[in-house]
Every structure is written in structure tokens, then in C-alpha cells.
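RECORD CONTENTS
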Amino acid sequence: MAISLWGQFYELWKDPTTGAMIEGGTPHVQEWIHRMLWPKAEGGFESWAALAPTLMPILTKQVGKLFWPWTLANEKALAEGVEEFSVRLGDGVWSQKPQKYHARSLAMLRAKYAGISNKGDLDTILAATGCLAGMRA
């Protein structure tokens, strides 16, 4: 999971404003960003049981309830060739032009998902977070 968050933190670090905040006040975050440029396994990995209490709220609230519905609506809009799409996110409606990049990344996620032979635990997590629907397009 940390590797999937790394890109967001890397972009924050590259931005002058947030980059200064990271460099000036969060040295461990900056070190982690640098380590993740060339990641390598240097020991054991945390178990899902240890990670779930902190990751499930993020996966459910941010990914399952906001990003996932948006990315599926974006994919549909591209398939239909519309200039703009709208999707209900939380208490509001979000409208914008479709983005091809996100449709490609969704296709890549689905391809990686399809390549997993034993999806039992993964499907349980994806279902609990609201991300299983649409995984098999």
C-alpha cells in the first residue's frame, strides 16, 4: 500500500510549497520518498491485520466512496464519447471532462487483478471498501 501512496507524496515533494514543508518539517517522509525512488525489500512486510486499522478508513472513504465511483464514471464517459460527465460524490455532484490517463490506469489495475490467482483475501478487502464492483469489466 505504501508504494501506491508514494506517487502522491513524491508529487507533493516536487511542488515548491509542499516540498518545502516536507523538507523542513518531516525528515522521515523525505527519506522515505528518496528510498522509494529505488525500492528494495529490506526485511519483512507488515501483515494486513496490522495495517487494516489505519488503511481501511482511507480505502473506504477516499478510494471506495470518492475515487472509485469517479474513475468508473470517467471510463463510461470515454466509452460513450461525451465531452463532460457528472458523478455524485458524497453530498455533491462533480462534473468535468473525461481523462484518458485514468481509464488507462484502471485498465492496468484490472489486468493486474486478473493476473492474481487466489483473490479470496483481496476480494474481501475490495468488497469491504466498495472497490470490487467494476473490477471485472
Notes: The radius of gyration is 17 Å. The chain has two domains: 1-45, 47-137. Residues 47-137 form one domain. The mean pLDDT is 91.
